[in-house]
Amino acid sequence: MPSSRGIKAAYWSSDDEFPASLINTSFFTHIYYAFLLPKPSTYKLHITFLDRIKIKEFMIAPCFKNSHVKTLLAIGGANNDPIVFSKMVSNKKTHAIFINSSIKSSRGKPHLLLTSTVYYASKFMVSGEPRSYPNNAICKFVDWVSPMCFDFHGSWNNVTGLNSALYDPKRNVSTSYGIRSWIQAGVPPQKLVMGLPLYGRTWKLQDPSINGIGAPTVGVGSRNGTMAYFEILEFNNKTSPTVVYDTQFGSYYSYSGVSWIGYDDMDSVSLKIQFTRSQGLGGYFLWALGMDKDWIISRKASTSSAWGRRQ
Predict the structure, then answer these.
(1) Which helix (H) or strand (E) is 100 found in, with range?
(2) Residue 36 lies in a domain
(3) pLDDT digits (tens, 9 = 90+) for 178-192
(4) Helix, strand, or coil (residue 278)
(5) What 8-state DSSP symbol labels residue 63?
(6) What's the CA angle centered on 112, arms 110 and 118, to 5 degrees?
């Protein structure tokens, strides 16, 4: 379980151009290597030739020397096949094969951490049916769970929306609602590590004069609907847009002509860290390293925390 000093985690994506050697570990307590997958034919954890190269790069990076940062392997991700996972967990034998191969891949560690990245809320809908997580098992077996408090709005919407609003006065699609739903479901706050995005969502406005939250759109905007934080700053510097910090939602958006972006910046990140403290959460995580700009958000989140030094 996370200690009172708090988790300050981040994911390093192995298919990103951002090299592990440039990670500034001073802002983090834990860093995830993303992603590994089980092999469909055997259900063993599959470490490809490229993964072996990348994991070695990750583990021997100079920034990890004399560092207390702990490293974890993230299994799954957007490219995983849910059918493979479903088949694997439905049978005790294949489940054991996967678990044992995962432990073998992490050999040499004195204590293994078991965490799970989950939906922003404790309940959700699948094919119109209400579902929920096994909260009793989470409380008993998992060191912590990490609600993904982002992707609230995106290309699937035909109006503008905030990627990671802390609050939403009209809907239950917000970080505050999601986190409180987990607590109400019985998961201890200290076992919740809240997700923060280092990217925003973009749209093309239908009418430049109608440019607030919920404004009609005619499709996605720059970078095919998603922009890393460093790209957002570049866009804002080049286009001199109108930048709005909406305190009601606890998030930012900017617009210039028909271009509209919803994202987090320093003030909204600071507000979210205050929220994690007020709720007694175990900490936060960032997705993903390489999207920040000169460690602006990473530094702000770390220095806004009252958890102190690493655990």
Answers:
(1) helix 92-105
(2) yes
(3) 999 999 999 999 999
(4) helix
(5) G
(6) 165
In a domain, 238, yes or no: no
- DSSP state for residue 153 in the 8-state scheme: S
- Are the CB atoms for 10 and 283 separated by under 8 Å? no
pLDDT of the residue at 14: 92
The three-state secondary structure class of 55 is: helix
Residue 253 has pLDDT above 80, yes or no: yes
Contact in structure between 193 and 281 (CB atoms under 8 Å): yes
Domain limits at 97? Answer: 7-197+265-304
Burial of 162 (0-12, 13-18, 19+ CB in 10 A): buried
Mean pLDDT value of segment 235-247:
97
What the block records as the tokens of 229 is 């934080």
For residues 119 and 76, give the distance between their C-alpha atoms in angstroms, rounded to a whole number: 14
Residue 1 exposed, middle or buried by CB count within 10 Å (0-12, 13-18, 19+): exposed
CB of 194 closer than 8 Å to CB of 146:
yes
Residue 232 counted as domain residue: no
**Is the link from the previous residue into 285 a cis peptide, with omega within 30 of 0?**
no
- Count of domains for the chain: 1
* Nearest Cα to Cα of residue 247 among 307, 303, 167, 304: 167
How far is residue 6's CA from residue 18's CA, in Å, rounded to a whole number? Answer: 26
Number of separate helices (H) and strands (E) present in the chain: 8, 16
* Domain CATH for 155: 3.20.20.80
Q: Are 120 and 147 in contact (CB under 8 A)?
A: yes
pLDDT score, position 116: 97
Q: What percent of the chain has pLDDT over 70?
A: 95
pTM here is 0.94
